[in-house]
Amino acid sequence: MNSDQQDNGAEMNLVYDRDTMARLGIDVQAANSLLNNAFGQRQISTIYQPMNQYKVVMEVDPRYTQDISALEKMFVINNEGKAIPLSYFAKWQPANAPLSVNHQGLSAASTISFNLPTGKSLSDASAAIDRAMTQLGVPSTVRGSFAGTAQVFQETMNSQVILIIAAIATVYIVLGILYESYVHPLTILSTLPSAGVGALLALELFNAPFSLIALIGIMLLIGIVKKNAIMMVDFALEAQRHGNLTPQEAIFQACLLRFRPIMMTTLAALVWCAAAGIVGR
């Protein structure tokens, strides 16, 4: 894992002791104004000339801004008019600061990239990140989103159900027009749930992750099963119309005569499947 956030910059954290400030009669605004006048670039006036105008900016000598010991020489006036050293009620210590702050839109953002370990899929990594976000109790103001391949995978998973429903509806309409029937398309589509369940059981049996390659394989399997069902139903309807056979006899004859072409087309899709899987990984 690596991140684009670089915390190699140097900064100084200054913390007020509010109890001590209240006891000494020092206002927080007075201390803030002191630091702003010393280390900021505060415009205190403007000089107007006939041909131009000049801004008057108050700041300390640059040599004092390079040494942290300058803080020990600063005094704040309390409500009694006494000068109180800054070191009496404030503590400072060095810390790391980001060299730059990246943004996405109007929000500060940090990009974390990672590589998948051996034997793990993108779905496993996405699930682990979601669990970590939940366990850490990240506040609602902090949001995370995937990018790159992980974003494409997540969008594919989110739209998967809608795409499957749309595909089934399209297939039903096309088959209904082809066979001029409301029932025969349902007969063909009834083979799809068993194919999907069988594919998921095979993934569980071999402890294989549900990756993008697995999703493509399931889609291919559903297509093959649907094609086989169309071959069976189409032949059975032809035998029933022209051979005067009952539906039971027609589908039995279709099973006998269409078994070999179904096996040939199914096995053809499995040839070199291992090599294709290796290339996909």
UniProtKB/TrEMBL annotation:
Keywords, in A-Z order: Cell inner membrane, Cell membrane, Membrane, Transmembrane, Transmembrane helix, Transport
An MF annotation (GO) of this entry: xenobiotic transmembrane transporter activity
TM stretches of this protein: 161-179, 199-222, 262-280
One Gene Ontology cellular component: plasma membrane
Protein name (database record): Multidrug resistance protein
Gene for this chain: mdtC_1
